[in-house]
Amino acid sequence: MPVFTRLRQLPGTTGDDSPRPVADDPAQAPSTQADPAQTDPTQATRSSLKARIAHWRTWRSRHPTAARALSWTVTALAAVLVLGALLLPNHLFALRPNRFTRIPAEAIIGAVVLLALPRRPRLAAAALYGTGLAALTLLNLLDMGFTEYLGRGFNAALDWDLLPDAQSYVADLTSPAVATATAVGAAVLVLLLVSVMVWATVRLGDLLVRHRSRATRGALVAGTVWITCTALNLQFLGMPIASDRAAGALKTHARRTLDSLRDEATFAKEARTDTFGATPAEQLLPDLRGKDVIFTFIESYGRSAVEDPVMAPGVGRTLDTSTKELAEAGFRAKSGWLTSATYGGSSWLGHSTTMSGLWIDNQRRYRTVTAGDHLTLTKAFQKTGAWDTIGIMPGVQKGWPEAEWYGLDKVYDAFDLGYKGPKFSWSTMPDQYALEAFQRRVHGRKHDKPLMSLVILTSSHQPWAPLPKTVGWDELGDGSVFRSIQQAGKKPADIITDTTKSRQEYGRSIEYSLTSLTQWLKRYGTDDTVLVFLGDHQPIARVSGNNASRDVPVSIVAKDPKILDKITHWNWSEGLKPTRTAPVWKMNAFRDRFLTAFGSTPSRGTGR
Fold first, then answer.
1. What is the CATH number of the domain that holds 443?
2. pTM of the model as a whole
3. Is residue 431 part of a domain?
């Protein structure tokens, strides 16, 4: 660069080489020091905050009435948030106005504590109190969701592991992007809930201190009223006026968590002891040798499907028709009830309870038992060496290490059955196709040994939209025939939020699954086929009802009369539809009863 050019760019010169004007007044001269607010972000923030505070004070002084109204409105909102959190029930059906007309003891105690503390401890206590209210609200909301879907409250010691499954379920219903957005949105809402609750408690704490004398008298009066209402059991709108709902909820969750932690060690010891654990192979299931035995779970096939006035007519007709058609083909059936270890979801708990003979009603128990070598009913068949054992798992879309625990020589998952058609919401393929693929790839082929098959059917999984329809068995092909049926089906969003429609579509899904299974048996069953099929759990509470039992139907179907003669002493109902008075067993009782009925010799053993 030429010297002349560089001189033109020196300070004090202008772009046209003329001298830069110099101000006569020093105050008007350009400053050579940077503005601190422009160089220090913290200082800039403070300056902006001061400006806003000054603006607010100016507005408040000019409009005192409006400012006072706004302040009291915000304070009232804070009070509503705190009282609402303290009185919020943990069941959807309990969300009624009379639940929020009570006096919470926790609010009175909180006010007394805040009034007694100096400023800084008071702020810390108020923030901690607000965080606790946010946690309590979150637990109540989780209780609502778990009760609605699983028929039980949330367990802080066990259920966090189920949240990823919930995200996967949303992804299956919508898309991975929507599921991720939902998870992020939920996390943001939790942070927002904490922030709002802390703000509300801090604001109310400041209000109490500003009016200390009146607040003290008010807390004394409220405490006296609360004690009086408790002693006299006074009620308003059908609810006790005095409430300790928040403390009771926290106590319940704490007890639930502690009980779960204690249960782990107890269950691990129980799982190591097995009535048939040391039974020699030749003494297991001798009365079923030579039979092709199929254990089939139908998703959400619960007692409500058979007895509820909305679902029962259609399901009942299907069961009656199927019983008649199977009888014409030479099959007989007996049916009873099992009380499932789960409700509304977590199907694997029902599967493992039935097959292990242990009560597996939570994820920790499931992990404990599947990590050991407790004998499952399916593994008993494998242990004999007299059967090839296979699993048909259209719902499995990733690694499934539990196959070894179940004693399955080969597992056919969602990718092994050759399906090229569309998914039906969560279900990867229609039951009819899964059964036909089972026939083509396994059951219909020659094999050196009889088969023991574990088949999990998924078409009746919520949200029951869209639903597949039965097509000609010879038309199934690779499943592409279902594409037009899926496209013409109902949308999940139109069903899942409507209780009546959910119940109707649930009933239709059970009819479809039962029809597919019994038609398959009629078409491909032989003199040596023994079919055991049952539900894994009841459908969610919105469909089965808030006070529904956990019972599921179970049936055994065979041509050989000796098979059903072996279970005559069970007193099960004739046909595929169990009567109301048919025996009800806990689901974990089935393994031992089945093994005993078909000739197995008990021999207690211990495992790891």
1. 3.40.720.10
2. 0.77
3. yes
